[in-house]
Amino acid sequence: MKIGIIGVGTVGASVANILKDNKDIITARAGVELEPVIGVVNNLNKQRDVSIKLTDNVDDVLNDDSIDIVVELMGGIEKPYEVVKKALAKGKAVVTANKALLAYHRYELQDLAGDTPFEYEAAVAGGIPIINALRDGLTANHIESIRGIMNGTCNYMLTKMINEGVDYDTILKESQDLGYAEADPTFDVGGFDAAHKLLILGSIAYGIDAKPEDILIEGIENITPADIDFANEFNYSIKLLTIAKKVGSKIELRVHPVLIPNDEMIAKVDGVMNGVSVIGDKVGETMYYGPGAGGNATASAVIANIVDIARRGKGSPMLGFESSHGENLTLMPKDEIQTKYYLRLKVEDKAGVLSKVSTIFADKNISIEKMIQKPLKDKAAHLLLSTHTCIEKNINDALKALEDASVVTEKPAMIRIEA
Ligand SMILES: NC(=O)c1ccc[n+]([C@@H]2O[C@H](COP(=O)([O-])OP(=O)(O)OC[C@H]3O[C@@H](n4cnc5c(N)ncnc54)[C@H](O)[C@@H]3O)[C@@H](O)[C@H]2O)c1
Ligand SMILES: N[C@@H](CCO)C(=O)O
Ligand code: NA
Any idea which residues are catalytic in this one (predicted)? Predict the structure, then answer.
């Protein structure tokens, strides 16, 4: 079978190279030779470590009737959307690692694919076969929850910031050099990349047809050493967590940093590793762990899809994005989410401050669980506190009231606690 790779960057180059390096075993497993015949790039003059023929014209792939499988690894949304639609219209099988594309267009692409194979394992949790596990391995179950660390860049950054005190900008640059980060790293640090992955899983597990703007997304940009102090003091790790959870007939989908007890398995997932816990009503908890980003790890999942397509030939693509789930589940509004919260407040260090702050919490029906006060320079102090479980709307109202209170001298910060 002939393969055209559109986008020969970090992942695309690894796909071409692994198809060559591991050709014998891949051919044996696929039952047919898989030959990457051409790659499409933006800039033909750039030095690349690949031996396939390159072009800067995507039509060289789309209009070549001998190409069976189009591998889309260019990144972005609109251009890949056009390219994938054209490939499907020509009856070519498609493999993509593009979660941003699927976050917006997964249901349309599923309809367009019809019985043309369309696979996307590398789009979620890189090299971990989580799509395979959720769509096929756990298909007997109602999914109760999916909780995971699904952005390698953020996890790598948080691990280095917490364990080694490396500063944010240095470690972000390192993640880019290692090929972990998206072309625009705000997708990573802003939580959007993890949200794209969550939306894909939410469609497979619950049939929720939501877009990024419908769900709660927060990134890691505002985490400070004071937050890390509080976490250390009370035995928490700080992680960017991706959560899908069934609560009655509503589905929570949210991505944000959390304080998570150090003894939870997911708290031990460090560096570029991803970890996903899926709880099914019959199987119980299953855990998946592996590299979430990087050229070879991601290409491993891309090639698994290519081999799978070669093995089964044409047939139902089974993208697996559900629409009627049988249970009539709906997305839970962001305001109704309930969890525990950690708050960092910078306050004036003088009499009466604590009582003012406590009154605001009492008014919003929020109960405080733990608190430490750390003196700062110039008659100021940090109040670092955690709450008992309360409603997202009440916390947001309290944050507004605190911001307006004269004793609070800086915009308060909040991180949710997952326990
Ligand atoms: N890097 C990872 O660890 C990783 C992991 C999982 C998924 N992904 C996804 O895989 C895709 C590729 O990521 P990457 O890290 O390899 O990106 P990259 O920036 O390293 O490579 C992108 C390639 O696409 C080419 N390209 C971009 N726009 C093009 C256009 N309009 N026409 C022709 N060529 C074009 C570029 O020249 C480059 O060769 C993205 O969708 C990304 O989200 C990446
Ligand atoms: N930028 C992504 C790539 C893998 O999807 C990450 O860091 O997880
Ligand atoms: Na995967």
Answer: 197
